[in-house]
Amino acid sequence: MERRTHPAAEQLLPVALLTLSGGLQDTYTYLRRGKVFANAQTGNIVLLGQSLFDGDWGRAARYFLPVLAFALGVAAAERLQNCAHGPNWQRQVLLWEILLLFLVGFIPHSLDQLANALVSFSCAMQVQAFRRVEGFAFASTMCIGNLRSGTEALCTFLRTRDRQEGQKARLYFLVIFLFALGAEAGSLAVELLDLPAIWLSCVLLALGSWPLSHQ
Questions:
Q1: Under DSSP, is residue 6 helix (H, G, I), strand (E, B) or coil?
Q2: Which of 41, 103, 163, 204 has an alpha carbon 20 to 30 Å from 51's alpha carbon atom?
Q3: Using an 8 Å Cβ cutoff, are 185 and 58 in contact?
Q4: CA angle 94, 127, 147 (to 5 degrees)
C-alpha cells in the first residue's frame, strides 16, 4: 500500500514534541502560577463565571486574562500566516513561542498573571499553527477533542475493521498519552527548577522546530 508523505508540520516527531510541551505548560501554570490553566480555557471560563457570580473581581481577572491572551494568540498566528512568504510560517510561530516562554522563566511570582497570559498567548499560537497530525485534525495543547476523535475512530474500527480508522485511533491515543507524559515531566521539573522549569518546554519546541527548517 502506498504511504502518503505529509508536510513536516504534520509528521509525528514534531507533533510529539509539541504535545509534550503542551502538557508541561499546563502543569507549570497550574502548579507554579496560581492554579490557572494555560491551555484548557474551558476550565478558566468556568472559574471566571464562578468568580463573577461570587463578585470576586480580583479572582475573575486572574481567569479572564489568560482567556483574552489565548484569543489574541490565535489572532497573532493568523496574522503571521497571512503575512508570511512561503511555508515556513509555522517555524516562525515556534520561534516566537520559544522567546515568550523563555521570558516567562524570569517573571517572579508577583507577576503570575502576566506569566499566565504569555503562556496562554504562546499556546494559542501553537494551537492555531499546528492543527493536523499525519492528515488528521488534532490539538497539541488540550485533550478533549483528541479524546472524542480517538474514541470515535476506535468505535468505527471495531465495527468495520477499517485499518485507517485503527491508525487514526492509535494516533489520537498516542497524542493523549504524550500530553499526560509532558504533564508528568512538568510536575517533576517544577519541583526541581521552580519557575525556570518552563525552559524545558522551550527545549522541546526547539527540537520540534528543527524538522520544519528542512521542508
A1: coil
A2: 103
A3: no
A4: 135
Backbone dihedral angles phi then psi of residue 134, each to the nearest 5 degrees = 50, 40
Strand partners, 133: 136
Chain position carrying cell 511570582: 109
Q: CA distances (Å), 11 to each of 18, 92, 131, 212, in order?
A: 11, 17, 11, 10
**pTM of the entire structure?**
0.90
CATH number for the domain running over 8-214: 1.20.1250
What stretch of H or E contains 136? Answer: strand 136-137
Q: Where are the domains of the chain?
A: 8-214
CB–CB of 22/119 below 8 Å?
Answer: no
Instruction: Please give the pLDDT value at position 22.
Output: 94
Could you give the CA distance from residue 153 to residue 113 in angstroms, rounded to a whole number? 39
Judge whether 195 and 158 are in contact, CB under 8 Å: no
- Eight-class DSSP state of 37: -
Q: What is the pLDDT of residues 86-131, one digit of tens each?
A: 668 999 999 999 999 999 999 999 999 999 999 999 999 999 999 9
- DSSP-assigned letter for residue 111: G
